[in-house]
TrEMBL record:
Gene3D superfamilies associated with the record: Isopropylmalate Dehydrogenase
Protein name, as recorded: Isocitrate dehydrogenase [NAD]
Sequence intervals crossing the membrane: none
Classification lineage: Bacteria, Bacillati, Bacillota, Clostridia, Eubacteriales
PANTHER family registered for this protein in UniProt: DECARBOXYLATING DEHYDROGENASES-ISOCITRATE, ISOPROPYLMALATE, TARTRATE (PTHR11835), ISOCITRATE DEHYDROGENASE [NAD] SUBUNIT ALPHA, MITOCHONDRIAL (PTHR11835:SF34)
Superkingdom as given in the UniProt entry: Bacteria
SUPFAM superfamilies in UniProt: Isocitrate/Isopropylmalate dehydrogenase-like
């Protein structure tokens, strides 16, 4: 019985990279039945919002979605679709598997880091107000419940993927209450996973160590704001936006999406690198339990990257988005 998955092509380069990912995932022989729905700019005129209710409905029903990037209209009062999706579907964990890939330009060689970011609270809760005319206050929320949930997610992931260490990233030396609670709550979860080493690092030192010797890190678990910043930093260590997959995981479902945006400058030109979107699809296959199929796609990607004949311009090649996807499909066969 095929598993139904919502596919949101998105804006800009979204449709191109989504088609590439859909074709590659289908060729992996995973039994997936795609339900394609529009969200983003095209919906605004008709529905008055980039995220119509029917899109949320299909994700609630199917529980799993693969999503292309969506343009956030500037200054028109729309909330970011991504933030809205995370809140509405309670996608509490943002997870990025970031590792060096063959022939993808990077300053490092052996980076293999999973960034696990809490996705529902911290300063991202957006509770702000003015204090008089010349001061603004933003409230940082950290709760034991949400922190234990993200901590458990990080340790379960480490156990499942046979990883050795989870590092808690914080600033508890200064924010003794909020970050102190984050640190203490994840540490309390760590006791249930004696086979996995648990340590912690202050976020500023973490950034320095990441650019010095990133190879030493394994799984990182962070509150929302530090997670936002550090996950982009780690994406930069392995070659940037074109190769960074992402996942937003909740208790009832998950949305998988590339880290990059809609790149309007190159949209419609068959120039976009489809790897980030295909790798997000690989994460989705693993989440659904299609591990063999995921490995098949990973092997196809490795082959195409090593061979270098069918890679997109951002990786130094001349192939188009669809040519690269086709080469991956052929390598999988
Ligand atoms: P962007 O990621 O779209 O582009 C940044 C740079 O990276 C550009 O030079 C672009 O050409 C390049 N790039 C991005 N993806 C690429 C790919 N797959 N292959 C080759 N080159 C690629 O970021 P931006 O310009 O800040 O944002 C553009 C729009 O996307 C904005 O409206 C923003 O709100 C939206 N956005 C959406 C998401 C999402 O839906 N997940 C994420 C980030 C930005």
């Amino acid at each position: 019985m095929p598993i139904k998955v919502t596919l949101i092509p998105g804006d800009g380069i979204g449709p191109e990279v989504s088609t590439a990912a859909q074709n590659v995932i289908t060729a992996s022989r995973a039994p997936i039945d795609w339900e394609v729905v529009e969200a983003g700019e095209a919906c605004i005129a008709e529905y008055g919002t980039p995220l119509p209710e029917y899109v949320l409905e299909t994700i609630r029903r199917n529980k799993v979605a693969l999503k292309g990037p969506i343009t956030t209209p500037v200054g028109k009062g729309f909330r970011s679709v991504n933030v809205a999706l995370r809140q509405q579907l309670q996608l509490y964990a943002n997870v990025r598997h970031l590792r060096n890939l063959p022939n993808v330009p990077s300053r490092y060689l052996d980076v293999d880091i999973v960034v696990v970011r809490e996705n529902t609270e911290d300063l991202y809760a957006g509770i702000e107000h003015m204090v008089g005319r010349n001061a603004a206050e933003s409230i940082k929320i950290i709760t034991r419940e949400a922190t234990e949930r993200i901590g458990r997610y990080a340790f379960e992931l480490a156990r499942r993927e046979e990883r050795k260490r989870v590092t808690i990233v914080h600033k508890a030396n200064i924010m003794k209450l909020s970050d102190g609670l984050f640190l203490e709550s994840v540490r309390s979860v760590a006791r249930d996973y004696p086979e996995i080493e648990c340590d912690d690092k202050i976020v500023d030192a973490m950034c320095m160590n990441l650019v010095q010797i990133p190879e030493q890190f394994d799984v990182l678990v962070l509150p929302n704001l530090y997670g936002d910043i550090v996950s982009d930093l780690v994406a930069g260590l392995v070659g940037g936006l074109g190769v960074a997959p992402g996942a937003n995981i909740g208790e009832i479902g998950a949305v998988f999406e590339a880290v990059h945006g809609s790149a309007p400058q190159i949209a419609g030109k068959n120039l976009a690198n489809p790897l980030a979107m295909i790798l997000s699809g690989v994460e989705m296959l693993k989440y659904l339990g299609f591990v063999e199929e995921a490995k098949r796609v990973e092997k196809g990607i490795e082959h195409v990257l090593r061979q270098r004949d069918y890679i997109t311009p951002d990786l130094g090649g001349e192939a188009g988005t669809q040519e690269m996807a086709t080469a991956i499909i052929e390598a999988m066969a």
